[in-house]
């Protein structure tokens, strides 16, 4: 600790899919950080990132929330497995090796994210796991439960991608290109050409992603999808599965050139 005290921590559990681990320190005198509500964040909001970048302990960097609901993917390299996080916060607060696992806090000192990665190809582009997701995963690990990861099993394109490709639609959202066999998407009746506009009351507009909209739900829960199909709007109930139990052979086809 900064005051010179030393503790032995034990690992309570870890979740490789969401890049979260929980360690336990047996000392009730340590002050607890308070989680904020990451669903209330807005772009432009002031934040600070706390950690030990490049071994420099107890460093604080300041910035803003640059964007919400980003998706990041990394390839496997150097023994580190590939990783995909479907809903992360983007910040321009400086994040470097050693910041990962540290808090991203709002102006009131509430933890609204867990720093996880930076984009080495750019400047001022860092990412944090939203507090709502981190807290849910941590609570499962502390209780000895295997964390769930909501999964739909649909291949899709975001709105800007199909507009650039020359496909015009009278709506907004994500365009379904395929519903993988045996997945919740196929069981719910989703079809190629459907336009998913809402998940429950959450509109897939203004940067809100499909992955981000389902992250607040657990596998086994049922969500209502508002779908535009053939000029008419319909509502389809869909029961989420667990991403970790999805078949490895169920993958989206590569896009055609």
Task: Describe the overall structure.
The termini are far apart. The protein has 2 domains: 9-142, Thrombin, subunit H, CATH 2.40.10.120; 150-245, Roll (Pdz3 Domain), CATH 2.30.42. Helix content is 11%, strand content 39%. The chain has helices at 131-142, 159-164, 184-188, 210-214; strands spanning 9-15, 20-25, 46-51, 59-74, 83-91, 103-106, 111-118, 126-130, 150-151, 154-158, 174-179, 195-199, 202-203, 222-229, 232-239, 241-242. It is globular and about 65 Å long. The protein has 257 residues and is mainly beta.
* Shape verdict: globular
Please count the beta strands (DSSP E, at least 2 residues each): 16
Strands of the widest sheet, in order across it, are 3-4-5-8-7-6
Q: Which residue ranges are poorly predicted, with pLDDT under 50 across at least 5 consecutive positions?
A: none
Major beta-sheet overview:
6 strands, antiparallel, barrel
Distance between the termini: 54 Å
Q: Count every helix, treating DSSP H or I runs of 4 or more residues as helices.
A: 4
Helix content: 10-25%
Q: What structural class results from the helix and strand content?
A: mainly beta
Instruction: Give the CATH topology of the largest domain.
Output: Thrombin, subunit H
CATH architecture of the largest domain: Beta Barrel
Would you list the SSEs in sequence order as H and E? Answer: EEEEEEEEHEEHEHEEHEEE
Mean pLDDT: 88
């Amino acid at each position: 600790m900064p005051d010179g005290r030393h503790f032995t921590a034990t690992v309570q559990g870890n979740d490789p899919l969401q890049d979260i681990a929980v360690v336990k320190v047996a000392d009730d005198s340590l002050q607890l950080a308070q989680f904020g509500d990451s669903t209330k964040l807005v772009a432009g909001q002031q934040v600070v990132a706390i950690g030990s970048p490049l071994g420099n302990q107890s460093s604080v960097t300041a910035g803003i929330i640059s964007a919400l609901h980003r998706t990041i993917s990394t390839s496997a390299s150097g023994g580190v497995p590939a990783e995909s996080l479907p809903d992360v916060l983007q910040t321009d607060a400086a994040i470097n090796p050693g910041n990962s696992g540290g808090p991203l806090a709002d102006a009131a000192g509430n933890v609204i994210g867990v720093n996880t990665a930076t984009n080495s190809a750019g400047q001022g582009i860092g990412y944090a796991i939203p507090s709502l997701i981190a807290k849910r995963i941590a609570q499962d690990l502390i209780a000895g439960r295997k964390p769930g990861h909501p999964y739909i099993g649909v291949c899709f394109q975001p709105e800007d991608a199909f507009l650039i490709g020359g496909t015009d639609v009278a709506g907004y959202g994500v365009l379904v290109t395929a519903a993988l066999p045996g997945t919740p998407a196929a069981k719910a009746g989703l079809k190629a050409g459907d336009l998913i506009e809402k998940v429950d009351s959450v509109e897939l507009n203004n940067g809100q992603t499909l992955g981000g909209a389902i992250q607040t739900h657990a596998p086994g829960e049922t969500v209502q999808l508002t779908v535009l199909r053939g000029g008419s709007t319909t509502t389809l109930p869909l029961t989420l599965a667990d991403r970790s139990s999805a078949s490895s052979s169920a993958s989206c086809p590569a896009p055609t050139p």
